[in-house]
Amino acid sequence: DCTLLLEASSGFVRIGTEAGDAGDTCIADAIRRFQERNAMPTAESARSYIWPKIRAGRAQMNEANGYGVWSITPPPALYVRTGTVQLASGGTALLATDGLVRLVDVFARYSEQAMLQLALSSGLGVLIEELRRLEAADHDNIRYPRAKTYDDATGLLLRLT
Questions:
Q1: Which among 51, 58, 155 is positioned nearest to 103, based on CA atoms?
Q2: In terms of Cα–Cα distance, which of 93, 96, 114, 128 is closest to 16?
Q3: pTM of the predicted protein model
Q4: CB 26 within 8 A of CB 19
Q5: Contact 23, 98 (CB under 8 A)
Q6: What DSSP assignment string belongs to 34-92?
Q7: What CA–CA distance (Å, rounded) separates 14 from 105?
Q8: Residue 147 and residue 161: Cα distance in Å, rounded?
Q9: pLDDT band per the 50, 70, 90 thresholds, residue 15
Q10: Quick one: which H or E segment has residue 129?
């Protein structure tokens, strides 16, 4: 559940999860429908509704008729893609968990390129602090529907010299 954002010789590239593939994005519509049918939705009632759906989906992880994810359970070969991307000298890359990429995919705070540039100019700590503030401000997951209030937020920032 990681995404690689990089400035390649050919331009900006996103590899890994696409915005529509992210777990939060996939379940946001279901949570919104639940909220519309319930006058006073809480994070707990939404979680009780959505977690059976998430578990059913996760049961398809790395199954031939499901979807592939890099995990402790290796994906079937049909889900494995390989390739190369040329990075020019001074090129940058950010390998980020889906939790950190929430700043793009869920909270819509940055474009992918802007997030990479902010990481370069200010460091990953700034991004993580902002993410945690946004998550805490919407603790019930109402404004920004998502399965978990807080998700893993890890990044590895690289610059080719």
A1: 155
A2: 96
A3: 0.81
A4: no
A5: yes
A6: HHHH-SS--HHHHHHHHHHHHHHHHTTBT-TTSB---SSSPPPGGG---------TT-E
A7: 12
A8: 39
A9: confident
A10: helix 124-137
Please count the CA atoms within 13 angstroms of the CA of 127 that sit on its side-chain side.
Answer: 32
Within 10 angstroms of residue 82's Cβ, the number of other Cβ atoms is 4
On whether the CB atoms of residues 38 and 52 are closer than 8 A, the answer is: no
First-to-last alpha carbon distance for the chain, in angstroms, is 28
Q: Name residues whose C-beta falls within 8 Å of residue 77's C-beta, 6 or more positions apart in sequence.
A: none
Q: What is the distance between the alpha carbons of residues 161 and 148, in angstroms, rounded to a whole number? A: 38
What's the alpha-carbon Rg for the chain, to the nearest Å?
A: 17
What pLDDT digit, counting tens, does each position of 58-114 carry?
A: 888 888 888 777 777 778 888 888 888 888 788 899 999 989 999 998 899 999 999
Paired tokens of 46? 């939404």
Would the CA dihedral through 76, 81, 51, 34 be positive or negative? Answer: negative
